[in-house]
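Good day; I would like, with your permission, to put a structural problem before you. What I wish to show you is a protein chain and, alongside it, a tokenised description of its three-dimensional fold. Here, with my thanks, is the record as I have it:
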Amino acid sequence: QVQLVESGGGLVQTGGSLRLSCAASGRTFSNYAMGWFRQAPGKDREFVAAITWNGRITNYADSVKGRFTISRDNAENTVYLQMNRLIAEDTAVYYCATGTGPFWVGAPRKSDFGSWGQGTQVTVSS
């Protein structure tokens, strides 16, 4: 069983930046794709970004494309989400998740991911 622990959330002003981290343990991290999702109050959990097992392919939601960057360090069993030019609509609890395999087919979906972290709150104030 894999354990995921997110960190790096907080309160930031519009236009600011945050870097989220997700540390994984309990399974061979480098064998699996990783993803970030978010859930705002009253809304469904939505896809944000994903990265394949070797980091060569990434995928982003249109709403964050050009502002967010997902990366991973397989030696450190950690995946990151660099968030720049944050806006109020980015306010949500952010979750990392392990893929069910080393990559996904088509557009990443929640069903392509299995284990989830506990989430970290990101609040963007205007």
